[in-house]
Write a structure and sequence with these properties.
By secondary structure, the chain is of the alpha+beta class. It contains 10 helices and 6 strands; from the N terminus they run ααβααββαββαβαααα. The chain has a 3-stranded antiparallel β-sheet with strand order 1-3-2. A 3-stranded mixed β-sheet has the order 5-4-6. A hairpin with a 6-residue loop joins β4 and β5. Bound molecules: zinc ion. The site of zinc ion (ZN) has 8 residues, from β5 and α6.
């Protein structure tokens, strides 16, 4: 909190910012100043507090969301399970938009708001189902209390090489609320696959390719074996165990 106080001494007043080189600062600049001087990094705030601070700005929620394109990290209750639905948290301040001639960061990537086309692309790539519990949009939950609504949630991806990136994953609202901050650990996953026998590895690669767990020849044979009478099973057992000796 002391940092906030020190900074605010040289910050323009969020209520009526006077900024050389800027005619009349808009909502985005004012809401950024409000976040820095009133909320402070790491602290939560509510929609009501935001709207009360800017009674004359009808689009203040949108101006707040715009800041994400400027490197501001603002989490809602979907991103952070410790937040109540009406709360958001200023996780990290981004570009000081109250200073003239600031440029949007190039690497907005996953932090930027998604447009409709990007949303559709991600939902379709995830087969329109929750990647945690497998429920599809509009499907009824087992308890019959509600039908599933799909949302896009952020997920960190640990690659085999290079830095961790953030991407989106399709979840149902329930799983998203569950808020387990899972990582997609590609590196760890691949090293676990490496532990499989060559035969298992090939079979697994075929599942991945097909996008589903296909029944292999071994499983088909196991199914047939199970249907046989005891005598037949004994004969198969004797034959196979003598083979391996
Ligand atoms: Zn789910």
């Amino acid at each position: 909190m002391t940092i906030v106080a020190e900074q605010s001494r040289e910050l323009p007043d969020w209520r009526n910012p006077v900024i050389p080189g800027m005619n009349r600062p808009g909502g985005r600049v004012r809401v950024a100043l409000w976040l820095v001087s009133v909320v402070g990094e790491g602290n939560p705030f509510t929609k009501t507090e935001l709207r009360t601070a800017f009674p004359d700005e009808s689009q203040i929620d949108r101006r707040l969301r715009d800041l994400r394109d400027w490197g501001w990290v603002i989490h809602n209750s979907r991103d952070d399970e410790s937040l109540r639905p009406e709360e958001q948290r200023l996780v990290k301040c981004g570009v000081p938009v109250w200073m003239p001639h600031q440029e949007r960061p190039q690497e907005v990537g996953a932090k930027s708001a998604l447009n409709a086309a990007e949303r559709t692309r991600i939902l379709s790539a995830d087969d329109h189902m929750c990647r945690s519990c497998g429920i599809a949009a509009g499907e009824e939950y087992e308890d019959g209390v509600a039908t599933a609504k799909l949302v896009l949630s952020r997920r960190d991806v640990v690659h085999r090489e290079g830095p961790v990136t953030t991407t989106r994953v399709t979840l149902c609202e329930r799983c998203a609320k569950g808020g387990l901050a899972q990582k997609a650990d590609v590196a760890g996953f691949l090293s676990a696959v490496d532990q499989l026998s060559p035969l298992e590895r090939r079979a697994f690669a075929r599942w991945v390719e097909a996008g589903k767990r296909a029944r292999g020849e071994m499983e088909r044979l196991w199914g047939r074996y199970g249907t046989m009478p005891a005598d037949a099973r004994q004969e198969i057992l004797r034959s196979l165990t003598s083979e391996t000796e």
